[in-house]
Amino acid sequence: MTKVETATAFLQSVVEQEECAYSTQKQALNALAFFFKRVCGIEDPVFGVKLRKTDQRVPVVLSKRETGELLGDMKENERRYSLAAELQYGAGLRLSELMSLRIKDIDLDRGTLTVRQGKGDKDRMTVLPKSLRDALAGQIEKVRQIWESDRGEGQPGVYLPGALARKFRRAAKEFAWFWLFPAPKVSRDPESGITRRHHVHGGVYSKAIKRSTARIGVEKRVTSHALRHSFATHLLEDGADLRTIQELLGHEDITTTEIYLHIAVGSNGLGVTSPLDAGIAR
Question: pTM of the full predicted structure?
Fold first, then answer.
């Protein structure tokens, strides 16, 4: 069996046997195409596998009460990650966007948060909750102490994407580029082999959310992304227009944002009242 035939069989199993989501199928196809082009020198490999579209799933959303209980539990039992959870919900951030925030991305005076190189490699601005400004100011000062300690110990600067690292050679050691949520310990960068300070690991943060979810007894499959979904849904229920929510979330297509129309409740959500609640003759 040739390499292309082996790759085709693998892709076929991803599409048909494993029944993976459409995005996973595309990721597998792109990875194979990259491998054959860059490693095998085959410019246009033909796999002959038709990807299968999957229906859009309704996202998991917490009610405002559940959100409040979750954030309250994290404040009490997961203090290291509670501010990150509040910020993710309050600004509608993806997990990767939250973890990779840098000091320069927070503007306390203007009340804005800038997401750099979000999905699709696009920058955007979103709201910075007023209720978190004091806590964020305190976090920045705590982080400054870690940064000063790293500089005093001669630690290498933080990771910067290739082009930025070449253009701004000293930026990696500047406080403005330091992580908003740095890891408690330095670790080895698997790509460069450099031992330095990284941001908090997304998996560790996600596990903290799951622990809090279990403690408060929410019987839903809650991940960190549920906080982003809840941000959008609660905004819609409170009367925000769909276009504004689209911009805050960084969705390229408004049809992606429209999924929240199917799960929002109340006069600003689904906009209907159950006939049972409306009253029937008895």
Answer: 0.80
94 is catalytic: yes
- Taking CA atoms, 254 is separated from 7, 74, 247, 260, in Å, by 35, 33, 9, 11
pLDDT tens, position by position, 155-186:
999 998 877 777 777 888 999 999 999 999 99
Look up 119 and say whether it is catalytic: yes
59-282 adopts what CATH topology?
Answer: hpI Integrase; Chain A (1.10.443)
18 backbone dihedrals φ, ψ, rounded to 5°: -80, -15
* CA-to-CA separations, 121 to 42, 61, 118, 165, 257, in angstroms, rounded: 27, 26, 5, 17, 19
Secondary structure (DSSP) of 130-141: GGGHHHHHHHHH
Distance CA 92, CA 126 (A): 8
Q: Is residue 167 annotated as part of the catalytic site, yes or no?
A: no
Query: Is 201 among the residues known to form the active site?
Result: no
β-strand pairing of 124-127 with 112-115: antiparallel
**Has 22 been annotated as catalytic?**
no
Catalytic residue chosen out of the listed positions 102, 228, 229, 234: 228
DSSP 102: B
- Indicate which residue of 3, 207, 211, 225 is catalytic: 225
Burial label for 156, CB within 10 Å (0-12, 13-18, 19+), is middle
From CA 255, how far away is CA 119, in angstroms rounded?
Answer: 16
Is 260 tagged catalytic?
yes
Q: Which two tokens stand for residue 9?
A: 């069989």
Catalytic residue among 89, 94, 102, 234: 94
- Break the chain into its structural domains and give their ranges: 1-55, 59-282
CA dihedral 15, 21, 25, 26 (to 10 degrees): 150
Catalytic site residue from 119, 151, 196, 211: 119
Residue pLDDT, tens place only, 20-62:
777 788 888 888 888 878 878 777 777 778 787 766 678 899 9
